[in-house]
């Protein structure tokens, strides 16, 4: 007997059809089985009764049983279903099981109007903007409350945790921050010399590097790096804690998750970012000076003398003042997004992405607000 | 070898598994016969799940041989694992449903990857499998996070049975279910096993499961199978842990 599933249909007198099935009706032959059944069904036409003989079936599993059952449901007049004959004893249960399934017609899924769908998406997105503002303010408020409590009772500060996070987001970030800001300093310097040389303004490259790096680029690059590096880590950590109910566990033990988990993280970030900004700015200036020396033929002593004339403490202050605020924004966004994680792995990924995108966006917006502010107070 | 080992679907010989300096399974040998439900018992941390995970290739072994459905699982490649993976279904303790897919997609996943079948048939089969494990077609479009514990187990069972496996591995199938749902789940497994005729290897702690569904029981202690056989053999055993487990206070209700 061949292994392949075979279905033979014979038309008898009076519109009666006899079907014989044989071979192995198992999942591995699913394609062949389906073809056989479809061919037989297509040739059925009008019929009075149908009988399916299974005596030749050597192997049967749910796939085969269902296809035979589907065939049986096609057969017979006025909704009567075909009978199975010659069913091998040990497959009777399986066929009976299959008689029960797929009885309910699948609920028709209404196809939504594409225009309505687009409008609904716009509406939902607008509402979610409102939601994300609320989430941000919620977290900022909770954080302020926790900070207030800690100030009243300094002993309740999780110092160990804060130091641990300071180590992670501060100290461990130094190499990559130094490398990136150094390279940015080099690039600005090179571009400056290349273009300024055309109209003999080489000397002003130093002014550009000094002011650009200290006021804007140093802090911005570092904040974006930190948002990508540490903000995403915060979101992922808090998100998986939320998924595994660790945060609920903390709450039921009478601890405030904001005080225990989030305050130390945000504090660490607020302390680390100004330090990283300082280190980053210095690395960028160093890179700029190096390129000025080798590419722009400007002696380091001249570079330093020009730099001293070009920049003032104000420029340095403007950059440094922004750093802790940016850290706060990154920390609050990262932590609040982490707490929005739901049960699935997909939502963890989604919230982490949202956290990074949102904090980089807000860092840049904040930078713009500060630019307006410093301009109006004359710094 | 006697006749019984001929029909062994899973054959484990002298298996040694350890982590670092600890030896969890120490020259363990075990046979699972075709068409039976074998319950595998042992103290928490004794290595029941370790054995299961070693058989299905998730943990490396130090020594010994494992044969599943006539295939020696020595240095298996991912392709081998995929071939044998069609012949076994695994129900993990937490269900391990893919959280980003709906229940229907979870059940269809093995079919889509391994079989060449039309979307209509796949649709019908997914619903059929769900109905066989006692879920309604309305549950098909839920995502795993929306399911209760019992429904998660059922959906995971439907996925494990998607390809009509010869062997079904169950890791504590009734843990986390109340005794009534646990009992229902047990009888579901028994019914399905009778209709579909697969072999079951079940790691469990549940005395009710052991009493009601298992044909044979193997007890793990000190890294070895200390006793195996039907319930009567187990109850007659003089091994201290086996005595404490099967004839302890918590089991008195079964003795009556």
CATH superfamily of the largest domain in chain B: P-loop containing nucleotide triphosphate hydrolases
List the total number of helices of chain B: 11
CATH architectural group of the largest domain in chain B: 3-Layer(aba) Sandwich
Shape field of chain A: elongated
Write down the domain tally of chain A. Answer: 2
Strand order of the largest sheet of chain A: 1-2-3-4
* Arithmetic mean pLDDT of chain B: 81
CATH class call of the largest domain in chain B: Alpha Beta
Reported for the largest beta sheet of chain B, the result is: 6 strands, mixed
Characterization of this structure:
The complex is a heterodimer of chains A (379) and B (256). With 379 residues, chain A is of the alpha/beta class. Chain A folds into two domains: 6-100, 2-Layer Sandwich (Transcription Regulator spoIIAA); 124-376, no CATH class. Helices cover 69% and strands 8% of the residues of chain A. Chain A has helices spanning 30-42, 62-74, 92-100, 114-152, 159-169, 174-196, 205-243, 246-252, 257-294, 300-310, 313-339, 345-376; strands at residues 6-11, 16-25, 49-60, 83-85. In chain A, strands 1-2-3-4 form a four-stranded mixed beta sheet, with helices on one face. Chain A is elongated, with a radius of gyration of 36 Å. Chain B has 256 residues and is an alpha/beta fold. In chain B, strands 6-7-8-3-9-10 form a six-stranded mixed beta sheet. The longest helix of chain B is centred in the last third of the chain and has 18 residues, at 179-196. Classes of the chains: A alpha/beta (379), B alpha/beta (256). The interface between A and B is medium-sized, with 28 and 27 residues.
């Amino acid at each position: 007997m061949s292994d392949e599933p075979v279905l033979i249909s014979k038309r008898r007198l009076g519109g009666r059809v006899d079907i014989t099935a044989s071979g192995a009706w198992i999942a591995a032959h699913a394609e062949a089985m389906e073809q056989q059944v479809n061919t037989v069904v297509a040739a059925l036409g009008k019929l009075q009764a149908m009988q399916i003989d299974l005596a030749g079936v050597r192997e049967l599993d749910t796939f085969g049983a269902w296809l035979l059952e589907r065939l049986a449901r096609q057969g017979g007049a006025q909704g009567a279903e075909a009978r199975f004959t010659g069913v091998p004893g040990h497959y009777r249960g399986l066929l009976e099981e299959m008689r029960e399934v797929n009885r309910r017609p699948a609920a028709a899924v209404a196809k939504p109007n594409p225009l309505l769908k687009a409008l609904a998406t716009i509406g939902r997105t607008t509402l979610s903007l409102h939601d994300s503002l609320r989430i941000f303010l919620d977290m900022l408020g909770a954080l302020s409350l926790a900070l207030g409590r800690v100030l009243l009772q300094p002993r309740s500060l999780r110092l160990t945790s804060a130091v641990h996070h300071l180590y992670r987001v501060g100290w461990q970030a130094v190499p990559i921050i130094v490398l990136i800001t150094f390279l940015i300093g080099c690039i600005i310097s090179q571009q400056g010399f290349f273009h300024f040389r055309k109209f003999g303004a080489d000397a002003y490259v130093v002014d550009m590097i000094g002011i650009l790096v200290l006021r804007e680029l140093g802090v911005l690059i570092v904040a974006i790096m930190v948002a990508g590096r540490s903000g995403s880590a915060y979101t992922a950590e808090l998100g998986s804690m939320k998924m595994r109910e660790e945060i609920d566990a903390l709450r039921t033990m009478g601890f405030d998750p904001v005080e225990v988990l989030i305050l130390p993280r945000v504090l660490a970030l607020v302390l680390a970012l100004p330090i990283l900004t300082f280190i980053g700015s210095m690395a960028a200036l160093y890179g700029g000076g190096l390129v000025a020396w080798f590419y722009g033929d400007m002696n380091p002593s001249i570079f330093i003398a020009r730099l001293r004339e070009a920049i003032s403490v104000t420029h340095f202050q403007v950059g440094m003042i922004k750093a802790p605020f940016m850290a706060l924004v990154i920390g609050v966004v990262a932590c609040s997004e982490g707490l929005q994680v739901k049960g699935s792995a997909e939502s963890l990924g989604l919230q982490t992405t949202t956290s990074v995108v949102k904090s980089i966006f807000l860092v840049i917006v904040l930078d713009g607000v500060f630019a307006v502010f410093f301009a109006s107070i004359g710094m | 070898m006697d006749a019984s080992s001929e029909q062994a679907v899973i054959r484990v010989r002298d298996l040694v598994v350890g982590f670092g300096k600890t030896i969890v399974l120490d020259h363990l040998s075990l046979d699972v016969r075709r068409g039976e439900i074998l319950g595998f018992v042992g103290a928490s941390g004794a290595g029941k799940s370790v054995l299961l995970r070693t058989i299905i290739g998730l943990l490396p072994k130090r020594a010994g041989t494992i044969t599943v459905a006539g295939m020696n699982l020595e240095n298996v490649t991912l392709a081998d694992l995929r071939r044998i993976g069609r012949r076994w279904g695994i129900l993990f303790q937490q269900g391990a449903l893919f959280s980003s897919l709906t229940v229907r997609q979870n059940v269809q996943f093995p079919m889509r990857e391994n079989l060449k079948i039309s979307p209509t048939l796949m649709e019908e089969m997914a619903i059929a499998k769900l109905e066989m494990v006692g879920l309604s077609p309305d549950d098909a479009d839920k995502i795993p996070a929306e399911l209760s514990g019992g429904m998660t187990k059922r959906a995971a069972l439907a996925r494990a049975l998607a390809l009509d496996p010869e062997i079904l591995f169950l890791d504590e199938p009734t843990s986390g279910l109340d005794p009534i749902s646990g009992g229902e789940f047990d009888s579901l497994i028994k019914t399905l096993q009778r209709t579909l005729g697969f072999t079951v290897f079940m790691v469990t702690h549940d005395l009710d499961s052991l009493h009601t569904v298992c044909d044979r029981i193997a007890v793990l202690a000190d890294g070895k199978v200390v006793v195996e056989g039907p319930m009567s053999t187990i109850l007659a055993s003089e091994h201290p842990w086996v005595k404490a487990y099967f004839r302890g206070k918590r089991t008195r209700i079964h003795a009556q």
